[in-house]
Specification:
The complex is a heterotrimer. Chain A has one domain: Helix Hairpins (Orthogonal Bundle), CATH 1.10.287. Helices cover 63% and strands 0% of the residues of chain A. Chain C has one domain. Chain C is 90% helix and 0% strand. Chain C contains three helices and no strands. The chains are: A mainly alpha, B mainly alpha, C mainly alpha. At the A-B interface, helix 1, helix 2 and helix 3 of A face helix 1, helix 2, helix 3, helix 4 and helix 8 of B.
């Protein structure tokens, strides 16, 4: 337990979550289930990125009474992955909502959500 | 059978790639060069106590501009797809009536949620939070309002006007940084003030207020478009 | 030490919920499980000293996106009832 760091736990969980999401996308036939798989994949990537930026025993990149400006560089975690994940989460909901809107309109057109019934381009 | 083998192969290859990168994804012992630069020079250059905010609004401000553009695009495509024709809307709509408790509580709580959202995006440079979180909180307040009164229609004109005006002012502030200070989205053209107080960090609070309004109105637009499909006949 | 144990439990809970979200036949259960994954992930972000990300994930991942999923699901169900 001593040699495993918090970011190892987070990165491993993130990788497994990515694989679970990909597995869902590949095996499920219901479109809504596939979109859930995409959102799991998304969350997994975010956990991996935040885990990479974490440093053992350091605190959040916010300077106040607890973290003095002078010795900030030795006490905080990397702020860059956090900033990127922050924007990625907001984009993620936009993309999820877009996929759901498509799914709703496809359902209203064809009365089914089974991906295998959508075979117009199959030769 | 062939499909299962194919799925397993794809998953296996993907897992192999991720496991191979595991070695250099592991944690460092100290901050890398870029992050050290941000930590050492950030407080005096930008003046924001929250370094994540400093990175989002100034150092990587162009990224944020691109990001809100993507969000705007998805919101407008969703609006285009889910547009309901007037004749499709049922009258009267057979939506289950909400409970008395939810209706009364939402009247009291919704303004507080909006206030919390505004607080979060004004204090983005001091405490955790900022435009994106505040915008999401404002949109969740709208969700509560729509759950309590499903028949209520959201005025899309207001959302569109707020969205485009805040986007416009965001770009204007960026260009003012270019003209009056060091570069696009440079925040020091407003006097930085005392570090750690509300009126500090130059233009960051102003920029973050516009980002918050923009994100909030975009997410509200998505939610209200989704809600309006509930009233369609088909 | 205690933080690592909490993180380990959270990671296991996230994976369990993810498997439920993919496997369960009922869409409602799957959507709620996906929301719970986001909620636990936001606690994990807090342990990884990323409060900004935790706030965003809690508000967006487990709040708004679950609501949007349910709006679409409700619409599809109502349709199915009308045509069956």
């Amino acid at each position: 337990m001593e040699q495993i760091s918090l970011s190892h736990i987070a990165i491993t969980a993130g990788i497994l979550l990515i694989l679970t999401g990909l597995w869902g996308i590949l095996t499920q036939k219901n479109i809504i289930k596939m979109i859930i798989g995409f959102s799991l994949f998304d969350t997994g990537i975010h956990i991996v990125m935040v885990g990479v930026g974490y440093l053992e025993g350091k605190t959040a990149p916010i300077l106040d009474e607890a973290v003095k400006v002078k010795e900030a560089a030795g006490e905080i975690v990397d702020p860059l992955p956090q900033a990127m994940v922050l924007t990625a989460i907001v984009i993620g909901i936009g993309i999820t909502a877009l996929m759901l809107a498509y799914a709703l309109r496809l359902y209203q057109k064809r009365k089914t959500l089974d991906i295998q019934k959508f075979n117009d381009l199959k030769w | 059978m062939l499909k299962k083998i194919f799925t397993a192969a794809v998953l296996g290859v993907f897992a192999l790639i991720l496991v191979n990168t595991y070695g250099f994804m592991g944690p460092d012992q100290q901050l890398n060069e870029v992050a050290t630069r941000y930590a050492e020079k950030g407080p005096e250059e930008v003046g924001a106590a929250n370094l994540v905010t400093a990175v989002i609004v100034t150092y990587r401000g162009l990224d944020t501009l691109g990001e809100v553009t993507i969000l705007f695009l998805t919101a407008s495509i969703i609006g285009f797809f889910l547009k309901t024709k007037k004749e499709d809307i049922q009258t009267p709509v057979n939506i289950r009536k909400t409970s008395e408790i939810l209706e009364t509580a939402s009247k009291i709580i919704t303004p507080m949620i909006f206030l919390l959202g505004v607080y979060v995006f004004i204090n983005g440079h001091l405490t955790p939070g900022g435009g994106f979180q505040g915008g999401a909180i404002v949109a969740s307040g709208l969700v509560l309002m729509l759950l309590a009164n499903p028949l209520k229609t959201v005025n899309h004109k207001i959302i569109t006007v707020v969205e485009s005006l805040s986007g416009f002012f965001f770009v204007v502030l960026g260009v003012m940084g270019l003209l009056l200070a060091g570069g696009f989205l440079d925040n020091t053209f407003i006097a930085p003030g005392r570090f750690g107080t509300l009126f500090s960090a130059g233009a960051i609070p102003v920029i973050y207020i516009f980002i918050g309004l923009k994100v909030g109105s975009e997410l509200s637009g998505i939610v209200s478009n989704m809600q309006e499909t509930q009233k369609e006949e088909i | 030490m205690i933080i690592k144990i909490i993180a380990l439990i959270l990671a296991l809970a996230i994976l369990l919920m993810a498997i439920i979200a993919v496997y369960n036949k009922k869409l409602v259960v799957a959507i709620v499980a996906a929301g719970v994954v986001s909620l636990f992930a936001s606690v994990l972000y807090l342990l990884l000293s990323a409060p900004d990300v935790a706030m965003t994930e809690a508000a967006i991942g487990s709040g708004l996106s679950t609501v949007i999923f349910f709006y679409v699901l409700n619409k599809i169900r109502k349709n199915r009832k009308d045509h069956a």
